[in-house]
Design brief:
By secondary structure, the chain is an alpha/beta fold. Helices cover 48% and strands 12% of the residues. It contains 11 helices and 6 strands. A 6-stranded mixed β-sheet has the order 3-2-1-4-5-6. Strand 4 and strand 5 form a beta hairpin. The N terminus is likely disordered.
């Protein structure tokens, strides 16, 4: 389970919920004014809700979800999200993974492991066992299944774009053994040529680099009015940052890494070379 630390603030959850409400409304072709009428408010109030600028009343969320024809299971999840978004401290347990509708652009830097969105099942299984040695086989498989389900988003029309920068150390670390790493390298080589995936490697030869402090993820929404969100995952918790100064610092680091790292074309050559080495062993 992921918990958020104090200091994250409820803003991120309001943005999450507002973004999904907007998608649901637009999918049904319902105007903001009509949605506002349903909750006894104006169209401008719906706009503020969808941008995450105001708190949510559970009754309003329930009424909107009914208007949008959302099924009971999804509605229950979104109402719970509204409840947590209104909490002054929302570091209570919140799901296993980010909602699959969270962002359409993800900038990601990894220093220790292959990014979760690009992991094979066996590699993911090995990583999860390392991080959760007391987890039961059933729990491990459930987490693997969740990780693979998230990956399906990359193949859907209109799915997210992924820009991943990976330290060479993550490619060299034999997680799960040689066979697992060989299959993982094949997966990365295939992913690197996908139109919606940009993959770069920061080689050992570059020495120190801009992100020595560790891995991070930048999530960007399609709506220009919604701020980027920085996601930092820890062993037992996760931190979401949306303050402008924080976001700008991480964005600057990501841009510097893209310059320090090998080009996407050169990255494919590096992966192919590593795969040949793995086959020869």
């Amino acid at each position: 389970m992921i918990t958020a630390q104090p200091g994250s603030g409820p803003t991120v959850l309001r943005i999450l919920l507002g973004s999904q409400l907007r998608r649901l409304r637009e999918a049904k072709g319902i105007t903001r004014d009509d949605a506002g009428y349903t909750i006894r408010a104006s169209g401008s109030k719906i706009s503020r809700m969808e941008l995450g600028r105001v708190s949510f009343k559970e009754r309003d969320v329930q009424d909107l979800l009914h208007l949008y024809g959302v099924d009971a299971e999804e509605a229950q999840s979104l109402v719970a999200l509204a409840r947590q978004a209104n909490s002054p401290g929302w570091w209570h347990k919140y799901g296993d993974v980010l909602p699959d509708w969270f962002g359409v652009y993800v900038g990601l830097y990894e220093v220790q492991f292959i990014p979760g969105l690009l992991q094979t099942a066996d590699y993911a299984r090995a990583v999860i066992r390392l991080g959760q040695p007391s987890a039961t086989p059933a729990e491990v498989e459930r987490r693997v299944g969740l990780r693979l389900a998230r990956q399906e988003l990359l193949t859907k029309p209109g799915g997210p774009r992924l820009w991943a920068i990976v330290d060479e150390a993550a490619l060299r670390r034999p997680i799960g053994g040689r066979e697992v790493m060989r299959a993982q390298l094949v997966r990365l080589t295939e992913a690197a040529v996908e139109a919606n995936i940009t993959l770069q490697v920061v080689p050992f030869g570059s020495g120190g680099h801009a992100a020595e402090a560790g891995a991070f993820t930048i999530m960007r929404f399609p709506e220009v009015d919604l701020p980027d969100v920085i996601y930092l995952e820890h062993l037992t918790s996760a931190l979401y940052l949306d303050k402008r100064d924080d976001v700008e610092k991480y964005t600057e680091v990501m841009e510097r890494l893209s310059v320090e790292g090998e080009s996407p074309e050169r990255t494919i050559e590096i992966l192919s070379g590593m795969l040949e080495e793995a086959i020869e062993e």
